[in-house]
């Protein structure tokens, strides 16, 4: 895969109209690192990913990606920088086949020449997608659709992959398969930022994580430290 890149947010405020959802969020993801953002419903996790992928502009603070100041880069220029966002609802084209969805992911002039090589790489990463390549995406199971959405995001040759709740709505066994896939992707050296409510699972695949509560970073640390932290265990891991 293409080289990975680093991401850095400082004091980011963002929201919707008059409603503020993020209050001075700071975080960083180093090249090749996998980082999680966990927290309860409405904490601002999705909003954070939207800010990073340029869908929402911060009202204050700064974002840097691979040396580029994202606060001044126009939103339409962000995909070309290598930021791939897999949104919570996946947004596949249900009436297109798996392979056609992958083609959409490689639609930009820069990505088009790499279509065959990247498609074959995606099929190597998830053989199931190869077996299903002529199936309409909308007729697949939730887990298969999630894998297809991740595959499509990889088609642009990203330098960072943003995943919004990849386990949402999936059965436990399928959740395992999706996280295995994330593990393989990160083993290839791609930088990954993953938002999750499934704290126990995500802490098994990321190096570090941030706990977001009502739009603020309430805790951060290495995965093993957070998994052992009594307050985190009580709030998010059903422990004591
Ligand atoms: P969830 O896991 O439920 O998606 P989250 O941590 O991702 O939660 P966000 O979706 O980022 O949280 O929402 C943060 C806050 O912003 C919430 O109070 C939410 O109601 C509000 N919000 C989210 N999207 C919008 C929107 N399009 N317009 C107005 N308010 C929004």
UniProtKB/TrEMBL annotation:
<dbReference type="InterPro" id="IPR052156">
    <property type="entry name" value="BCAA_Transport_ATP-bd_LivF"/>
</dbReference>
<dbReference type="InterPro" id="IPR027417">
    <property type="entry name" value="P-loop_NTPase"/>
</dbReference>
<keyword id="KW-0029">Amino-acid transport</keyword>
<protein>
    <submittedName>
        <fullName>ABC transporter ATP-binding protein</fullName>
    </submittedName>
</protein>
<dbReference type="Pfam" id="PF00005">
    <property type="entry name" value="ABC_tran"/>
</dbReference>
<keyword id="KW-0547">Nucleotide-binding</keyword>
<dbReference type="GO" id="GO:0005524">
    <property type="term" value="F:ATP binding"/>
</dbReference>
<comment type="similarity">
    <text>Belongs to the ABC transporter superfamily.</text>
</comment>
<keyword id="KW-0067">ATP-binding</keyword>
<dbReference type="InterPro" id="IPR003439">
    <property type="entry name" value="ABC_transporter-like_ATP-bd"/>
</dbReference>
<keyword id="KW-0813">Transport</keyword>
<feature type="domain" description="ABC transporter">
    <location>
        <begin position="7"/>
        <end position="239"/>
    </location>
</feature>
<dbReference type="InterPro" id="IPR003593">
    <property type="entry name" value="AAA+_ATPase"/>
</dbReference>
